[in-house]
Amino acid sequence: MATSFINATVEDVGTAESVVYSVPVDSKAILIGCNVANKTGGILPVSLILRKAGGDTYISRNKRIGNGESDELMRGNKLVLVAGDAIIATSGLDNSFDVIASILVGVA
Fold first, then answer.
1. For the residues of 33-65, what is the DSSP string, one character each?
2. What is the pLDDT of residue 84?
3. Which of 56, 66, 94, 100 is surrounded by the most beta carbons within 10 Å?
4. How far apart are CA 103 and CA 9, in angstroms?
C-alpha cells in the first residue's frame, strides 16, 4: 500500500463520542495534526482520545476553546497508530465542534 496524506473530518461533535479516524486492518498510520473549531457562542471543552485495544488515553482532555475559535491540539507532536486504533472526539455540548485530523496512511 502506498503512503498518502488524508484529512479525516467529523462535524458537529458533541457529548456522544465521534470517531474521527479508525485505522483499517493490516494498516498503520501517523496522526500529524488535529484542528478543532468551536462553532458556538460560548467557551467549551473538547477532548481528543486515542482508543487502543488496551483502553483509552487522552491526547487532550477538556481543552477549553473560545467561541468561534480553533486550536491545533497536536502542536507538532506525532502519534503512531496501528490497526484497530481510533481517534475519538467529544465535547461538553452537542453540535459544538468540527474536527479535522491530518493523517499519513499506508505507513509500513
1. EEEEEE-SSS-EEEEEEEEETTEEEEEEEEEEE
2. 96
3. 100
4. 11
Q: Nearest-CA neighbor of 47 among 69, 70, 85, 14?
A: 14
Q: Rounded to whole angstroms, how far apart are CA atoms 107 and 102?
A: 14
**Distance in angstroms (rounded) separating the CA atoms of residues 65 and 39:** 10
Q: What is the mean pLDDT of each run of 10 residues along the chain (108 residues)?
A: 92 98 96 98 98 96 98 96 98 98 94
Cell (9 digits) for 1: 500500500
The widest CA-to-CA distance across the chain, in whole angstroms, is 43
- pLDDT of amino acid 1: 63
Tell me the domains of the chain and their CATH numbers: 4-105 (2.60.120.260)
- Predicted pLDDT at 8: 98
